[in-house]
Amino acid sequence: MNALITEHFLDDVRLAELLTQAKYRQGLGPERIKRLLQSKALCHDDVYSAFSESEWRLGLGATWSKRFTEKPKDNKSYTQQARYLQYRGFSLEQINRFLREKHEQQ
């Protein structure tokens, strides 16, 4: 067992990094990944530092484009899109910045 630990085959930090990368590729945001790591009793302090802000932004854009094709036109569509992205684990600050930019592109 000690050999596995020294060779980093049993490493909580490594597992947290791999789960973070896998869930990011699935379109989940930092908040949702953080809750997942908490449920598995893993260190979640480095979830935000695992990717830069621009990479989280790209992930948010990819997640949005999988579900929505049109920019938010009114308050109803804006809140619907915001709720979906929040469920996927993105912070309200990230969502509001992204959707505001989408809305201004019209």
Q: Give the SSE order as H and E letters.
A: HHHHHHH
Q: Whole-number radius of gyration?
A: 17 Å
Number of helices: 7
Query: What's the end-to-end separation, in Å?
Result: 59 Å
Please provide the count of β strands. 0
Structural class, judged by helices and strands? mainly alpha
Silhouette: elongated
* Low-pLDDT segments: none
Largest sheet, in brief, is:
none
| Overall pLDDT confidence | 85
What does this structure look like?
- By secondary structure, the protein is mainly alpha-helical.
- It has one domain (2-104).
- The protein has helices at residues 2-6, 12-25, 30-39, 47-50, 53-67, 75-87, 92-104.
- Helix 2 (12-25) crosses helix 3 and helix 6 (75-87) packs antiparallel against helix 7.
- The longest helix is centred in the middle third of the chain and has 15 residues, at 53-67.
- It is elongated, with a radius of gyration of 17 Å.
- It starts with a helix and ends with a helix.
- The model has no long low-confidence stretch (mean pLDDT 85).
